[in-house]
Predict the 3D structure of the following.
Amino acid sequence: MIPRYQKVLFALLLVASIAMAAILVRLRERAHDRLLKGEDLAPTTAPVVAPAEQATLMVANDMDESLVPEARSLPLPKDAGARARALLDKLLEVYAAPDAMHPVPGVPRAVEQVFLLPAEGKSDAKGQLAVVNLAAAFADGHPAGIESETLTVESICGTLHANLPQITEVRFLVDGQPRATLAGHADLSRTYLTGAVATANPVTGAGATL
C-alpha cells in the first residue's frame, strides 16, 4: 500500500509539471507573437537598382587596330567613380565574349576600383585623374603584345572620356600597386591623356601611340 505522504507528493509534482508545461507553452506563444510583430514593423526596402542609361563603349578591334564606339544601355550609378567602374566592367565583359574582336580572358572583378582625383594643376571637377586599379589576374592573363595591350589601355581611356568627359587623365595600378607594363609591353607607369585617344580615334581611326 502506497503511503499517504507519497500520494500527496506525487499529486504535487503532477500539478507542478502541468503548470510548468502551461507556462512554457504560453512563453513560446508570446515569443512567436513578438517575432511576428517585429517582422511586421521591420521596414522592407527594395534593393537599389541603378536606372539604365545610354553609354558609349570604345571597343577595340584587332583587325584594323581601331576603337569602335558602341552604344549600350547600362544601369549606371550616380557616383562618378562607381559609374566609371561599371562602364569598364562592361567593356571588359565585351572582350571576354567568345566572338570578341579584341579577345581578352575575363576574370571576376577585373576592375577592382576607380578613384577620381583632381588632375595635375586642376582644383575642380572639370579636370580629373582616374586611377584605375586592375586585378592582377586580369593583367597576368592578358594576351602579350604591344598592339593588344595598347588597344586595351586606349579603349579604357577612350570609354572613360566618352562618358565622363571631365576625366582628362588616367593612371593604372594592379592590385593597388604600380606596375611597369600590362603584360610586358604597354606602359602602365605613365599618365595617359584621354584627349589624345579621342583625337586619334574620332570614330574608327587608327589607335594612338600615347
